[in-house]
Amino acid sequence: MLMEGGLDRIAQAKGAMARRDVASKGVFISKAIGIVGGLREGLDLDNAPSEALVRQDSLYHYMMTRLAEANARNDQKMLDEVAGLLITVKEGWDAIATVQ
């Protein structure tokens, strides 16, 4: 659900960019950053800091940084990059869910 919400907010931010609606773009990107931050907070780095979790944490941090940069630079390609990364992560989690 969170990942879908993140993808929705990124799509809405792209639409706002296209319309030159700076205020809405900022709101949607801020919400996307918050969602990715929520995913990041869900990682249990304190109790079981595996290499995979550390890498996932770094990926989420990178996504948040790129979203902020996309907002500052008004860059839809950066939003597309983050959306692609989020889709890849979502597909991985979806695949795990179907195996279990």
Layout of SSEs?
Elements: H1 2-19, H2 22-41, H3 51-73, H4 76-99
Task: Explain what this protein looks like in three dimensions.
The protein is an all-alpha fold and 100 residues long. The chain has one domain: Up-down Bundle (Four Helix Bundle (Hemerythrin (Met), subunit A)). Helix content is 85%, strand content 0%. The chain has helices at 2-19, 22-41, 51-73, 76-99. The longest helix has 24 residues, at 76-99. It is elongated and about 45 Å long. The model has no long low-confidence stretch (mean pLDDT 94).
Based on the model shown, name its key terms.
100 residues; Four Helix Bundle (Hemerythrin (Met), subunit A); elongated; chaperone
Write a brief structural summary.
It contains 4 helices and no strands. The chain has about 100 residues and is an all-alpha fold.
Gyration radius (Cα, Å) is 14 Å
Can you name the CATH architecture? Up-down Bundle
Q: What would the principal axes of the Cα set say about the shape?
A: elongated
Could you say what the CATH topology is called? Four Helix Bundle (Hemerythrin (Met), subunit A)
Helix content: over 70%
Structural class: mainly alpha
Tell me what portion of residues adopts beta-strand conformation: under 5%
How many distinct folded domains? 1
Biggest pleated sheet: none
- Quantity of strands, as a count: 0
Mean residue pLDDT: 94
CATH class: Mainly Alpha
Low-confidence stretches: none
Ends apart, CA distance between termini: 18 Å
Total helices: the number is 4
- Written as H for each helix and E for each strand, in order along the chain, the element string is HHHH
> In the CATH hierarchy, what is the superfamily?
Flagellar protein FliS
Family: Belongs to the FliS family.
Protein name: Flagellar protein FliS
Pfam families: FliS
Subcellular location: Cytoplasm, Cytosol
